[in-house]
Amino acid sequence: MTGKIKGKEEVAQGTLQVTFQIDEPFTFQPGQYCFVTLNGEKKQFSINNSPGQNNIITITTRLSESSFKKALKDLPIESEVELGPIAGVFTLPEDTSKPLVLIAGGIGITPFMSMLQYVKESSLTYNITLLYSNRNQASAAFLDELRKLPKALPNFKLILTMTEDNSWTGEKRKIDSEFISEYFPDVNDNLYMVVGPPTMVEAVEKALLEARVFRENIKKENFTGY
Question: Which residues of the chain have pLDDT under 50?
Answer without folding.
Answer: 225-226
